[in-house]
Write a structure and sequence with these properties.
This protein is an all-alpha fold and 140 residues long. The chain has 6 helices and no strands.
Length: 140
């Protein structure tokens, strides 16, 4: 359960980067020319030009998004599972809290896809803990 949750986190992160990266591809040349490094980006959003807003949105929905850390967390979960190391229970709970809040703010999004994954992480971490306790009791 934990391994598949980690794989699911990586897949969600990769899909996020690919799907939103298609729109962001047109902005990459501007980013390489440091067009995100302007004073205008510090102005209130409503006063920024549409081109600046579009470039910002493309950046924050790809490279600056949580997709890359999500891929890394998924890889860490898979690695921990492969080494039979315990998964901290806060990981599933904190992911679930973040995903639920984000899902309530923007309902039509990919955020709800993370709810079952976070729940599986919570259940998997609980099962790991119960197995450890049972093994400790059996060896005592």
């Amino acid at each position: 359960m934990i391994r598949w949750s980690g794989i699911a986190l990586m897949v969600i992160g990769i899909l996020h980067m690919v799907v939103l990266g298609i729109d962001a591809a047109a902005e990459i040349t501007g980013w390489l020319r440091l067009e995100l490094w302007t004073v205008e980006h510090w102005q209130p959003l409503r006063t920024q030009r549409l081109e600046v807003l579009a470039s910002n949105a493309a950046f924050w929905s790809t490279v600056g998004s949580f997709a890359l850390p999500l891929i890394m967390i998924g890889a860490l979960v898979v690695w921990l599972g492969g080494k039979h190391l315990p998964l901290p229970s806060f990981l599933g709970w904190s992911l679930l809290a973040w995903i639920v809040v984000a899902s309530l703010i923007i309902e039509v999004s990919g955020f709800p896809l993370g709810i079952p994954v976070a729940i599986c992480l919570i259940i998997g971490a609980r099962r790991q803990k119960l197995r450890r306790v049972t093994l400790e009791e059996a060896s005592a």
